[in-house]
């Protein structure tokens, strides 16, 4: 393969050097070193020839340069005229936490770059990547997204098992490759007794992955680890596998029975409802959604006198719930430990009480008949498998008469008489465990016959009993979901903040002994208050439990346990297959599609030993210098925003001062957490010290990790949160702003190309990573984050006039984005809900702050690194800034996925996240010379500016 020619800026060698040519026959050598004296005429003619050659070269060069500039002008503007690059501080703001592909348009070249070209390997690779991403046949002022990412889209495709693929997925896949490389390099031998903390940590990391990837062993182990847990819940609460009862309690399965078949396709509306619930749940912690403030947040305490359980049942329910909750299994009611956002100190971890969540994604699914039919069959399959193999049933039913009689012979006469008496007593009972002559009952507990002569009734086949029980369990869950609040209320911090004294909550939940329940988790501080997210739910669940038989409750508990831990079983285990059958339909995955086991196991590695994996990722792909540089970029953006606040025209002085105070309080976190300290193997060893990892016990590893995390969470109750802790692992490709915590967080996983490289010129670092940082910062001042003060408390800290002016400008953004759209499979437009995406759109406009911060860094810089150009890219620094921004939004998406997301995702589609942001940004218009009225520079009346 030919080597690339050196840069012409520094090239001294001739362009062509033919080794076959004879230097003695060179024309120039003949002229300047003649073998004989030249005549006067020859000298004159030779001089004229050289002069004409030089003049021709000059004119040709001038003509080519002029033609090139003219073409660039036309490609850039579509008209004649001068190009002027102006640095501006005018910016428009839109908040967002998630990044996707954006629209592109053709760049306007700025002429031949100067001699300060970045020729490091990183810059050459980056330059090549940018060039390949471009579609230079498009005018940047028409469609900047297509200009910036069209080449990328043409060279990529969506994997068969995904609904979309973009820059974020590329980074995530590359991060996984780094972790696989780390895992492969870890020795398989167990660490010695004198092994270092690092060696012990790495051994745990390897063992978790190996225990997960060995599916043959998992399949051989089978269901046993799970049935040991279901046996325990049955011991605590009571059996679910009982003889059929005549009552039709909660059995409404005739309503949906038989409505599901394999041609069923999940309605887009259902998928949207599930996505919305998940987004709102995340938004409570990370902002990005405008929460409506209720007129009155006070909720009356209701008396609960309808149902009073007996003490014995209360103890069994309390013990069962505590045992399940300590293992991460949700049921009936759910307790969580969260910051007290409505209190005086949002960092104090308080106890919150939520409604139950079921095996289906949202309450809307419980009204979809085909889904209920499928769900019932899945639960019936799970319960049947457990009932047929549980040791409880085996101990009860699987006695062998011959073995008992042999035992009687072996025993002495006295003992034998006692055994015979026991057998006679059993024979007189209905629970006689062996078949009588002429009776079809089987020794495994199944009964395929009718009643026999002495009126003993036969047991139905296990599958029939479990089918009936599954119908009751599904209806029970359905009633629980109906009693709960909708997500927009449940996760709204204003509606959901209802603190009561613990003794009051105990009265509201008479079936649960709260002091006994709490003692299971051994919190160091007994909570005086409990925040109830939806008080009416407590009365509903109390009354529902009052009319529910124990065997149905037991079936519900066992089902919740099985669905929670099914993923820790082998792929061929029946319970796992039943769960996957449900998941495939809910996710729209084609039947028979095999899972990517490597991805599955890497996700489990994160869940179980994520910080150890994070340390290894940081060692391979991140540096202290990158961390320091990332923090510097964030601080410079915060500073730029802080300085701009007093000059915001719609914000009065009082509100601007309060906003500056909040900006000063923002805590930036980059790379990795310090609790546990990701850089310290001893800290990680202590963090996972109580976690016993075994290479051949994946289920035990999952269970042990869950127990440890639940215990760790409960130990924080009543204490202030450690500010060095994070919500994400270092290898995560994401970023977030936490309103109650007042912090913006950027894991090392996202500080990778195309978002960041320390080796890049400053304009590219600010254009890509700076945009992410500014996005999260702007969330602190969007229509959600603005409801939290500088201490992370839910407070009104703006004046009423400022709030009104903010809302007017936020609505401008909402109306603008509501005109944007995606296409469905039939080519029809489906429009963005600008109110849903408003917070994220406002955050995206934080790009303006990143641009100002970069410009400020140039004026303060003592070096010329910020002026470095990339080889082969004839664009200005300003233009490359915006190219870097647009590149991170490159994405391909299937129509069905696009429609589903546009209806539920609080982030606008990537195309509009890029183009919508840039349409409102004057600095972009000037950098690319986009005339007013062009697609990327609409008339001022159609633009929105907030921050």
From TrEMBL:
Residues 19-30 have a biased composition (Polar residues). The lineage of its organism: Eukaryota, Fungi, Dikarya, Basidiomycota, Agaricomycotina. Its cofactor is Zn(2+). Pfam families: Peptidase_M13 (PF01431), Peptidase_M13_N (PF05649). GO terms for molecular function: metal ion binding; metalloendopeptidase activity. It comes from Kwoniella pini CBS 10737. Gene3D superfamilies: Collagenase (Catalytic Domain) (3.40.390.10), Neutral endopeptidase , domain2 (1.10.1380.10). Keywords: Hydrolase, Membrane, Metal-binding, Metalloprotease, Protease, Transmembrane, Transmembrane helix, Zinc. It comes from the Eukaryota. Residues 140-260, 311-394, 463-673 form the Peptidase M13 N-terminal domain. GO terms for biological process: protein processing. Residues 1-30, 431-466 are annotated as: Disordered. The chain crosses the membrane at residues 44-66. Belongs to the peptidase M13 family. This is Endothelin-converting enzyme. Residues 734-944 form the Peptidase M13 C-terminal domain. GO terms for cellular component: plasma membrane. SUPFAM superfamilies: Metalloproteases ('zincins'), catalytic domain. Signal peptide: none annotated. Residues 438-466 have a biased composition (Basic and acidic residues).
């Amino acid at each position: 393969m030919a080597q690339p020619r050196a840069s012409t800026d520094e090239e001294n060698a001739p362009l062509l050097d033919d080794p076959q040519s004879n230097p003695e026959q060179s024309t120039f050598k003949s002229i300047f070193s003649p073998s004989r004296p030249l005549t006067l005429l020859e000298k004159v003619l030779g001089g004229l020839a050289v002069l004409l050659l030089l003049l021709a070269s000059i004119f040709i060069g001038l003509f080519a340069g002029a033609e090139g500039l003219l073409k660039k002008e036309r490609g850039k503007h579509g008209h004649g005229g001068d190009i002027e690059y102006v640095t501006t501080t005018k910016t428009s703001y839109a908040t967002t936490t998630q990044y996707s592909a954006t629209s592109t348009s053709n760049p306007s070249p700025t002429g031949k770059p100067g001699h300060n070209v970045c020729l490091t390997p990183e810059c050459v690779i980056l330059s090549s990547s940018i060039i390949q991403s471009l579609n230079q046949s498009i005018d940047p002022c028409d469609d900047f997204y297509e200009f910036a990412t069209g080449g990328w889209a043409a060279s990529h495709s969506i994997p068969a098992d995904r609904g979309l693929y973009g820059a974020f997925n590329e980074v995530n896949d590359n991060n996984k490759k780094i972790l696989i490389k780390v895992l492969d390099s870890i020795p398989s031998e167990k660490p010695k007794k004198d092994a270092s903390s690092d060696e012990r940590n790495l051994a745990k990391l390897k063992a978790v992955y190996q225990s997960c990837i060995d599916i043959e062993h998992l399949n051989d182990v089978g269901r046993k680890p799970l049935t040991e847990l279901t046996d325990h819940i049955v011991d605590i609460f009571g059996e679910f596998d009982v003889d059929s009862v005549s009552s039709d309690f909660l059995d409404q399965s005739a309503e949906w029975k038989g409505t599901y078949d394999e041609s069923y396709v999940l309605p887009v509306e259902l998928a949207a409802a599930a996505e919305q619930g998940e987004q709102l749940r995340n938004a409570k912690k990370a902002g990005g959604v405008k929460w409506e403030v209720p007129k009155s947040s006070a909720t009356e305490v209701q008396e609960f006198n309808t149902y009073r359980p007996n003490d014995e049942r209360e103890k069994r329910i309390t013990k069962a719930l505590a045992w399940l909750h300590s293992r991460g299994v949700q049921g009936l009611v759910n307790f969580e430990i969260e910051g007290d956002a409505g209190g005086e100190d949002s960092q104090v971890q308080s106890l919150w009480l939520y409604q139950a969540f079921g095996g289906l994604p949202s309450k809307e699914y419980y009204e979809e008949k085909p889904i209920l039919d499928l769900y019932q069959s899945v639960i019936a399959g799970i319960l049947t498998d457990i009932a047929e193999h549980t040791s409880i049933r085996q101990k009860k039913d699987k006695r062998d008469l011959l073995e008992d009689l042999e035992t009687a012979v072996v025993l002495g006469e006295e003992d034998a008489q006692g055994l015979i008496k026991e057998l006679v007593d059993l024979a007189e009972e209905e629970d006689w465990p062996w078949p009588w002559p002429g009776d079809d009952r089987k020794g495994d507990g199944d009964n395929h016959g009718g009643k026999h002569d002495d009126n003993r009734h036969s047991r139905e086949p296990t599958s029939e009993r479990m089918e009936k029980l599954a119908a009751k369990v599904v209806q029970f869950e359905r009633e629980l979901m109906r009693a709960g609040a909708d997500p927009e209320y449940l996760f709204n911090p204003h509606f959901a903040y209802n603190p009561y004294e613990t003794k009051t909550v105990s009265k509201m939940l008479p079936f649960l002994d709260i002091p006994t329940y709490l003692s299971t988790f051994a919190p160091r501080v007994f909570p005086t208050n409990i925040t109830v997210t939806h008080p009416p739910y407590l009365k509903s669940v109390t009354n529902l439990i009052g009319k529910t038989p124990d065997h149905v409750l037991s079936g519900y508990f066992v089902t919740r346990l099985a669905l929670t831990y099914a993923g820790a079983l082998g792929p061929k285990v029946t319970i796992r297959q039943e769960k996957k059958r449900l998941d495939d339909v809910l996710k729209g995955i084609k039947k028979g599609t095999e899972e990517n086991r490597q991805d599955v196991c890497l996700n489990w590695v994160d869940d179980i030993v994520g910080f150890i994996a994070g340390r290894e990722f940081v060692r391979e792909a991140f540096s202290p210098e990158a961390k320091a540089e990332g923090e510097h970029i964030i601080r410079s953006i915060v500073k730029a925003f802080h300085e701009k606040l007093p000059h915001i025209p719609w914000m009065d002085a009082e509100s601007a001062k309060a906003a500056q105070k909040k900006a000063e309080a923002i805590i930036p976190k980059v790379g990795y957490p310090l609790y546990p300290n990701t850089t310290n193997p001893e800290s990680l060893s202590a963090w996972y010290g109580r976690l016993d990892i075994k290479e051949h016990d994946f289920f035990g590893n999952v269970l042990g990790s869950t127990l440890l995390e639940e215990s760790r969470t409960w130990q924080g109750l009543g204490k202030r949160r450690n500010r060095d802790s994070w919500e994400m692992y270092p290898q995560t490709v994401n970023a977030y702003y936490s309103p109650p915590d007042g912090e913006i967080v950027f894991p090392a996983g996202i500080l990778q190309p195309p978002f960041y490289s320390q080796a890049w010129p400053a304009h590219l670092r600010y254009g890509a990573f700076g945009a992410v940082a500014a996005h999260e910062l702007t969330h602190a001042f969007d229509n959600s984050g603005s409801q939290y003060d500088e201490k992370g408390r839910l407070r009104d800290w703006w004046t009423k006039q400022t709030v009104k002016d903010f809302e007017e400008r936020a609505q401008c953004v909402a109306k603008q984005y509501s005109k944007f759209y995606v296409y469905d499979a039939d080519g029809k437009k489906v429009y963005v809900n600008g109110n849903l995406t408003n917070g994220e759109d406002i955050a995206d406009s934080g790009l303006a702050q990143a641009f100002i911060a970069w410009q400020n860094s140039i004026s303060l810089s003592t070096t010329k690194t910020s002026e470095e150009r990339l080889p082969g890219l004839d664009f200005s620094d300003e233009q490359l800034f915006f190219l870097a921004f647009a590149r991170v939004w490159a994405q391909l998406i299937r129509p069905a996925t696009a429609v589903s997301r546009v209806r539920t995702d609080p982030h606008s589609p990537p195309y509009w996240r890029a183009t919508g942001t840039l349409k409102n940004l004057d600095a972009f218009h000037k950098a690319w010379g986009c005339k007013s009225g062009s697609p990327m520079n609409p008339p001022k009346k159609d633009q929105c500016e907030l921050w």
